[in-house]
Design goal:
With 134 residues, this protein is mainly α. The protein contains seven helices and no strands. Helix 1 runs parallel beside helix 3. The longest helix has 29 residues. The radius of gyration is 16 Å and the shape is flat.
Length: 134
């Protein structure tokens, strides 16, 4: 089993390096096949905030997870406002919109998952309002 974990971590490290936008999908679809803490360290190393937020949530640290995904949304919003206009604006705008939609979707999934399983009504409302304020 140790070899299997090492292989998964190697794959995660390579994915983070070569295709960072695909890491969230991998960790969210292969839950339990990798050590959370080591995978989170890789995400932090590479500044892959959507996957890191997912992992923090899985580790039971919902507040930090929500704060991180909101920070990620704010980063995207800031990049969109400060973006350089080029001749490829339509493609660039599509990519920016796609990144924002993905980040918001990650945040919504996190809130839905925790609303249904881990939180009482008051805590769930607080979490949703925290997200909606942003």
């Amino acid at each position: 089993k140790s070899r299997e974990i090492k292989d998964h971590l190697l794959f995660i490290r390579l994915l983070a390096e070569l295709h960072p936008n695909d890491l969230y999908d991998f960790v969210s679809k292969t839950d339990g096949m990798y050590p959370l803490d080591e995978t989170l360290a890789i995400c932090r190393e590479r500044n892959i905030k959507d996957a890191a937020a997912y992992l923090l949530d899985r580790m039971g640290n919902l507040d930090a997870a929500l704060d991180l995904i909101i920070e990620h949304i704010d980063d995207i919003r800031s990049r969109n406002r400060n973006g350089v206009k080029t001749e490829t604006v339509p493609v660039e705008e599509t990519l920016k919109q796609s990144a924002m939609e993905h980040a918001v979707e990650v945040a919504i999934r996190m809130c839905e998952r925790n609303s249904l399983t881990n939180l009482d009504e008051s805590q769930a409302q607080k979490m949703w309002f925290h997200l909606l304020e942003k």
